[in-house]
Amino acid sequence: MILEVIATTVDDAMTAENNGADRLELITAITEGGLTPGIGLVQQVIKAVNIPVHVMVRPHSRSFVYSETDVATMIAEIQAIRSAGAAGVVLGALTPDGKIDEETLGALLAWTGDMQVTYHRAFDELDDQFEGLRTLMKYPAVTRVLTSGGPQPAPQAIPQIRRLVEEARGSHLKILAGNGLTWEIIRDFIDQTGVTEVHFGSAVRYGRSGLKPIDPVELRSLADSIHQ
Fold first, then answer.
1. What is the DSSP letter of 207?
2. Which of 8, 28, 147, 159 is the one with CA 20 to 30 A from 38?
3. pLDDT category of residue 228 using cuts at 50, 70 and 90
4. Going by C-beta distance under 8 Å and a sequence separation of 6 or more, which residues neighbour residue 220?
């Protein structure tokens, strides 16, 4: 079982690693769903921890529909993140009619090299997630999908997430479940969905607030529940 934790600072990253996180998603603007962090932060976090660091590539929070200049910006960010030694990137793009934007996805993947690629929660805006999953299966560079099974929190979409896990079984894609999970329910959630990776942000912070630091006690309780 892999526990991915959101980090927004170097201190977050070190606290996460020291208290049971297996992987980091590094972002800024947590209250906007995560945007690309500055390259200085990326470099310092990679130096500070030994666990894999996956970096958000999202130029703005207006939508997941990107212009040519947005895509050029994202490519430049991917190049810088790769040069910094990150283990992966987190990205996604949609067409104006709400499908996976394969043209943009292909343009971005051309620059990811051997980094792992997570398709982020743009996936949760798709009308047909199973069609979306089949689309992503055409791209070996995409290694996982971060999803709550739709627009609602993950605990409210257990049947959908279980179906996505079953659909992805045997492929190169893993389902990374996130949004609305807490350590109190995580074992039941894992048992009911069959996920092998989970993603936590606000729920492991003081007061369960995205704008507070990671709470080592909360995170350790979660990690112990997951890794038992």
1. G
2. 147
3. confident
4. 19, 20
